[in-house]
Amino acid sequence: MIKGNFTIRKSDIINRRMFIIGTAKLIIFGGLIARLFSLQINENKRYLTLSDKNRIREWKLPPTRGNITDYFGNIIAGNLKVYQLHIIPEQVENFNYLLSRLKVILNLSIKRIEKIKKERKQLKPWESLIVSENLTWDQFSKINNYLYELAGVKPVMTISRDYPFSDIYTHVLGYVSQPNEDDILSNEIIQEKFVPGIKVGKLGLEKTLENDLIGVNDIQRYEVNAYGKRINQLEYQKGKQGSKIRITLDTEVQKLSAKLLEGKAGSISVMDIYTGEVIAMYSSPSYNPNSFLFGISKDEWQLIRNNPLKPLINKTLSGLYSPGSTIKPIVALSALENGIIDSKFKVQCKGKMELHGQTFHCWKEKGHGYVSLNNAMKQSCDTYFYEVARILGVDRLKVTADKFGLGKKVLGEYFENEKAGQFPDTKWKINKLGKGWVLGETLITGIGQGYTQTTPIQLCLMTAQIANGGYKIQPKILTDDNQLTSEQVKKAMQDSKSNDFYEPLYDDQKNIRIVQEAMFSSTNELMGTSYRSRIDDPKYQFAGKTGTAQVKRISKRERELDLKTFQIPYEERDHALYVAYGPYRKPRYALSIIVEHGGSGSAAAAPMATELFKLIVDRHQYRKKLADFKEFSI
């Protein structure tokens, strides 16, 4: 009985175990079937895509940048064909042997060979390694002759940036070069389009308009084997060249500006007094931006960097200078607008002015005698403007200076290196220096010295707004026909059409005319400081104001010696300035000229205006015809 019961229990245990094992098998088998169904049916597309990613590789080529042209359509930043040498590491049988052969064929340095080895370690096997970005035709031909023994070497013909006018536009355009880490991280579009060999803007318009200029990559798709080796090309997708950008500058005027400033440090700016279009903007000395395309040599970089005339500085936008006597038209206008003086107001100039025990000298040692506004402007009498500034006060003078654009960026939307400068007042000194304003500082501010710092482009804008009758204009360097997408450019165009465009900057326009007449006298009447630079022909006749800005305080002994400019050490010579507009009867263009350490504005800067206005006025007819044609076409 006991034995029978034990047999029954044993049988039950076995059956229970068989049931559990069978159920477990059924669950596992069911799970496997469900997983297989999921992989083959539900996730078929996902794994097919992953398979294709392993089988198909995509190569992006550097995009072609858009061209930049001058106002007349001349390409000033374009593209040219270059010959390059690439290595595809996956196809190389013996990398060291290959490098030794290339070293002989291309005469590569040991340093370059080591750099290539280092670059190879950072690349994936299927990515191209660029050995040379700019082969000569002889080198390119030589490589092609030896291709049969250079497995993995690929001669490539591609596109690179080119600046056909060399250093004429450098400070306007900037240049392109290989992107660094900051360039890539700070710009999502560069991140998206980055490939080895790509060039991006580093300065100027090339950098500001990068997103419009960069273009869209060409794309090659290849089928590869399990080792990543290319089997055949599946597709070639043509990219898109970047946007074409047309700027307002005239190459002929730009070239003349470069010629006039050759061997000198300084700046020339030219502006349309109604449209605000910048016609020329040249900073001297300059440098060749083509040198940066494929990596500038150490020696060439040192020559540029150590040049005492500082070619790396955009003097038009970043150079800060005391305006000297070029500020006198604004001082006169401010005094007239505030009712401090009228055109008949006179001051006796004895060559110096005493105030609280301090002596303020006029440039003419024996003085100018009794002078009115017109005569004081014509002969640039410092004593007259000391007195006017004393009565006016620096705070009221600053209000007028602000209206005409002094102490503010002019083209800041497009140039991150532009400086605002400063035009001081009593609050500025308290906030900046923690000291109270003194009357003597008002006097020297009235002749453009002291704390006042302006850029050449500001002085050009100031003169343009005096020339057009006292109306506000919005300077621009891009033409309105550019088809751009960047928000920055759209904003700038909206600003140029804002409600304050052509807003009057005066209370009484008669005061503007008084200043204009005084500037005419300064250039076109006997005793005028720029009389020797005048043009009698009404077609080219212009009005202007000279300026001489001290770079150091003149000692009593130096004043007594009365040295000529060439007798003074270069770095201690005054800066020479000149502002002008013309033609006088029907004004259209304004300019500013600065020659660093040039001595006097009348001798060094004003004569340049004579040549410039002849060309500018002659070029106007072509500019007008093109503008009329484009307007008609639209």
List keywords for this structure.
634 residues; Penicillin-binding protein 2a (Domain 2); Beta-lactamase; 2 domains; five-stranded mixed sheet; 24 helices; 19 strands; 17% strand
Protein architecture, described:
This protein has 634 residues and is an alpha+beta fold. It has two domains: 59-168 and 216-246, Alpha-Beta Complex (Penicillin-binding protein 2a (Domain 2)), CATH 3.90.1310; 251-286 and 315-633, DD-peptidase/beta-lactamase superfamily (Beta-lactamase). The protein contains 24 helices and 19 strands. The strands form six sheets. Strands 2, 3, 4, 5 and 10 form a five-stranded mixed beta sheet that branches. A five-stranded antiparallel beta sheet has the order 12-11-19-18-17, sandwiched between helices. Strand 14 (352-355) and strand 15 form a beta hairpin. Helix 11 (251-260) runs antiparallel to helix 24 and helix 15 packs across helix 22. The N and C termini lie far apart (115 Å). The model has no long low-confidence stretch (mean pLDDT 86).
